[in-house]
Amino acid sequence: MPQMGKASRRHAARFGHTSSQVRAARRWARTVTGLPREDADVLELLLSELVTNALEHSASGQGGHVTVTLACLDSNAIRLAVMDAGPRRGAPTTVPHVNEADPGLEYGRGLALVERLSRRWGFLGVPGAPLTVWAVISRNAQR
To answer: Which helix (H) or strand (E) holds 42?
Structure first.
């Protein structure tokens, strides 16, 4: 499996407020990690969930942006992090949490997926300010 070299162990990029930016973030992640599409499934899935959540639940989706950071922690771990643009205007302040998903609904499973497929996950920041949701995944989970 290709590995991020020592000179490129951390990458960051900013993406816009539209749903097409989720695909752009996945493509960017595959490019900077050097992973072929078939080897990057977990990384791309979790990144999609985190970017989509930021666009849906924060000001990032109201004309804001998200910042995505990928970091190689060691030879077998990648941390992905998505920073949002703060709380949505006119909405109550919330923090990321895993919901009990209703199997009949097509939404509401994002963070449950992140929790299941990552080594660990969490968020940084305080309610009412921009938040960064992060997850650590194993490189060998990519296959």
So the answer is: helix 41-57
Contacts of 9 (CB under 8 A, 6+ apart): 71, 72
Q: What sign does the CA torsion over 117, 119, 124, 127 have?
A: positive
| Residue among 59, 57, 54, 63 nearest 25 (CA) | 54
Record the pTM.
0.88
Rg (C-alpha) for the chain, rounded Å, is: 15
- 113 pLDDT more than 70: yes
For tokens 């660990």, name the residue.
Answer: 120
Residue written as token pair 């709380």: 87
| Helical (H) or strand (E) element with 11 | strand 10-15
Per-residue buried b or exposed e for 59-94, using 16+ beta carbons within 10 Å of the residue's own CB: bbbeebbbbbebbbeeeeebbbbbbbbbbbeeeeee
